[in-house]
Amino acid sequence: FDDTREAEKVLHYLEAKQPREVALMLVSTLTHAAVATLAHHAAPIEVPGLEPAVRHIAGKAELLSRAPITDMRRYEELAMELAWAECVVAQVASLEHKLCPGAGQTQEMRKFLAALVTQPEALVPGGPRGDIAARIRAMFSEAHKASQMISDSDPSSHITTEPWSPILSSVFPPASEREFILRVSAPRPAPTSLVTPHRLSVRLRKDEFIMAGCFSQ
Question: Which residues does the UniProt record annotate as the domain Rab3GAP catalytic subunit C-terminal (predicted)?
Answer without folding.
Answer: 29-217
